[in-house]
Structure formats: C-alpha cells, structure tokens
Amino acid sequence: MKTVKNTLVTNVKWHEAIEYAVLKTKHNLSRYKQKFPHIANDKCYDWGDNEDWIEGFWTGIVWLCYEYSGDEYLRLQANSQIDSFHRRLQNQHALEHHDIGFLYGLSALAGWIIEEDEQHKLLALRAADHLLGRWREASGLIQAWGPEDDPENGGRIIIDCLMNLPLLYWASSATGNPRYAEVAVGQAELSRKFLVRGDDSSYHTFYFDRSGNPLRGGTHQGYRDGSTWTRGQAWGIYGFALSYRHTGNLRFLETSKRLAAYFIERIPADGIVYWDFDVPVTGSTSRDSSASAIAVCGILELLEHLAPADPQRQRLEDVVLLTMSALAESSMSMAQEYEGLIDHGSYHVRGDYGLDGYMIWGDYFYLEALLRLEKQIPGYWYERGSSSQEGD
Ligand code: GLY
After folding, report:
1. Where is the active site (predicted)?
2. What is the Å distance from ligand 1's center to 53 Cα?
C-alpha cells in the first residue's frame, strides 16, 4: 500500500497528538461511563444516550485509541458500548434514518475488523439489512430521513449518505449477496448525477418524486438552496473515494477528485474552512473544523488511489499538512479538562444550533486522519487488506 507519510514533512509530531487524544479519551470514559458525547459549545460535551445519528463516532474513537495503544481498558470499553448498539437495533430505537453506517460501521463493524468476533459481524450485517430497508424501489433511492410516507422527505437524498454506503459494500463481500452493493452503487450513481454540479460544487440534498423523477436540489444545513455546504462537500470527497475503493468504478474516483479540487481552492490561509463556501465571511462567521477533518481523511483515501505522477497529488498533500498541522497545534494547546479534541466545529448554523464548538464526528475524523498518517490505520470503512480496485 502506498502511503503519503513519507512525503509529508511537518513540525507537528503526530504521535504526540495521538497520545494527547488517547489520554483525553480515557479521562472522558472514566468520567462518563456509558454515556455518549454529542456536541459542545464550552469546555464540556453534552453527554447523552444512544439515540442520535452520532454515537458511533465515540465508539470509533475508542477503537482507534485501542488500536494505537493496545490498552486493554479501551478494548473492554469499546466492546461494552457495542451492547448498547445491539439493544438499539433490537428495539428499533430512533433508527428511522440512513445514518446506519455511521452508527454500526464504527462500532460493530470496527469490532469485527479488530476482534474478529462473529457477534460483532452479525450485528453489522443486521444493521446493513436495516439500511437496505431504506431503499425505495419505485424511486430508486435510499431515503435519508423519516418514514416512507413522509411528505417532505419521502423522495429526498442527501450527500452525507455516501458515507453510509461502505456498510452495504462490506455486507455484500461478507455474505456473497450482491444486493447490498447494487443498492450502494445505485445510490452513489444517483448522488454523482444529481448532487454534484457541473462546476464541481455540490447540493446538500436533492428531491425526487415517488417515481424517481428529479425535482430540485436544496439544502438542509447549508447557507441557501444553491450554496455549497462545506461539510457536505467533504462527505462527498470521502464518500466517492470509498465508493471507488469498493467498486473500482473510475467515475467515482474522478468525482472525488473534482470535489476535492473545489474544496481545496476555498480553504482559508489558516487551514480551517468556514461552514459554507458561499456564506459572506465576517469576523463572526462560524468555521467547521469537522469539515476540514473529514476532507483530510477523504484526501488521504484519494491519495492512495492516485498515480505517483498525478498532477493533483502535491497540492493535496500540501493541504493535508496545512490542515492537520493547524488542527493538531490547536488541539494540543487545549488543557486536558477541555473534553473535545478539535474546537471550532459547527453543526447546524442555519438552524442556529451548534455554532462553534466540539463536534464528536470532528474529533473522530481528526483522530482517524492522525492514525492514517502515523500508523496507516484507515478507520473502519473497509476490511484491512482489502485491495483497491482496478485503475490503481
Ligand atoms: N450527517 C449530518 C451532518 O453532517 O450534520
């Protein structure tokens, strides 16, 4: 596997940043036991139950910390969190949405990848079945939110969904049943055609009628309907790169490259993006460090598939270095009692919620990026040793 590590030079020592994160994670675990961190706008996270779209990120962080440190305490904590995901699926609690990959990929599938525990594998497969159940045959899409008859969301796709598709690709290779991957490819193709615009920017969401006829692009968390929500663009960079890894379809690779080129042209000099690429920037405009961290992971995935002489390579590597140096320096300057890893994330600025603080998914992708750089551990979007596809 070709890595970028040897070509990146930085003053920041990634291993020190990881050790700082492991210490903080252990401290948080010992304080909050079975609770899950959500978002924060001061030095403490809100800690809650397993009933939102984001709890998998915390378990994913614990797995990453375990993989780095080999600390048995972390392994036991991650395993015991999986019990909570098991109960949630069993009770069908707050699961009427598409974020099943985020929830179960980073908990149960990660547990299978690391531990080779058949129970974790079975849970991940049951979760994949649940996600498959959101495929709407008549319209040919995975419905993002709500029940099938939801008048607003019945025919709606969102760009974030690309990150839930790896669970489906994996389920096909784990079971030999092609159906999961067929649905994933259908969703990725639909996203490529309708969410990605001709100038390489993206819609956050797109609406179809019940027969699958396209209606219009729109947004949920972006600045306005035609704007480019920064985190959505980052989900697209990473999501299409992962769809390429799982399928070998070069159109997905090209799409990831296009989205990345658009993103990196709009990064401010200090390395951390604003929450929407079209928002007028003033002194009080929110940043989204989580979008920056997601984009870095997507770019690191993309770099694994680019030829050594690809003209985009150098610029992408420079951006990884700029962004990760900024994130790690800021993270390591925060005292241990500050519970999050990276500050200045935003959640739903348009909805006036989570304007500036820690976002648990931002912390996860920051740590994943560090482990990709330091240890070549790529998170939990595919099984280790699964080769990249044709075109590499
Ligand atoms: N997937 C929801 C978000 O990025 O806010």
Report:
1. 99, 160
2. 8
For ligand 1, atom 5, which residue shows the shortest CA distance? 347
pLDDT in tens, 104-139: 999 999 999 999 999 999 999 999 999 999 999 999
**Total Cβ atoms within 10 A of residue 121:** 19
Query: Using CA atoms, how far apart are residues 15 and 377, in angstroms rounded to an integer?
Result: 13
DSSP annotation string for 215-262: EEEE-SSSSSTTS-BHHHHHHHHHHHHHHHHHH--HHHHHHHHHHHHH
pTM over 0.85: yes
- Which residues, including other chains, have CB under 8 Å from residue 174's CB and lie 6 or more apart? 121, 124, 125
Which tokens hold the place of 239? 């999501």
User: What are the strands of the beta sheet with 156-158, ordered from one edge?
Assistant: 156-158, 205-208, 214-218
Length of the chain in residues, anyone?
Answer: 392
38 Cβ inside 6 Å of ligand 1: no
Looking at ligand 1, which atom is closest to the CA of residue 158? 1
Q: How far apart are CA 287 and CA 327, in angstroms?
A: 12
> Tokens standing for 291?
């979008």
Cα 332 to Cα 11: distance, rounded to the nearest angstrom: 13
Query: d(Cα 272, Cα 15) in Å, to the nearest integer?
Result: 21
Collapsing DSSP states into helix, strand and coil, what is residue 110?
helix
Instruction: Work out whether the CA dihedral 79, 81, 83, 89 comes out positive or negative.
Output: negative
164 has a pLDDT exceeding 70: yes
358-370 residue pLDDT tens: 999 999 999 999 9
Would you please indicate which residues are annotated as catalytic (active-site) residues? Answer: 99, 160
The domain locations on the chain are 2-375
Ligand 1 within 6 A of CB of 160 = yes
231 known member of a binding site: yes
- Asked if residue 305 has its Cβ within 6 Å of ligand 1, the reply is no
CATH class of 2-375: mainly alpha
- Whole-number Å distance, alpha carbon 160 to ligand 1 midpoint, is 6
Whether the CB of 288 sits within 6 Å of ligand 1: no
Please choose from 361, 364, 365 the residue to mutate so as to test ligand 1's pocket, defined by most ligand atoms within 8 A of CB: 361
